[in-house]
Amino acid sequence: MSKEPNRFPAGWDKERTSRVIAHYEGQSEEDAVSEDERVLRDENQAVFKIPSELAPAVRKLLAKHRR
Fold first, then answer.
1. What's the chain's Rg over C-alpha atoms?
2. Which residue of 3, 12, 16, 67 could cross-link 8, Cys pair, CB 3.0 to 4.6 Å?
């Protein structure tokens, strides 16, 4: 049985993915909290709490909006 190869979003590859993982795994808790707080203060973004079962539909809408 062969394992399906990893699929990456457009513009992403194994190297970029590895760099992002390394960034977040190497971040101190204080730096992570600071980053989260900066994102929450961004007036060009909104944060919503939605039921988990709606997440796939919301992701599809966001992907459609980006195109």
1. 16
2. 12
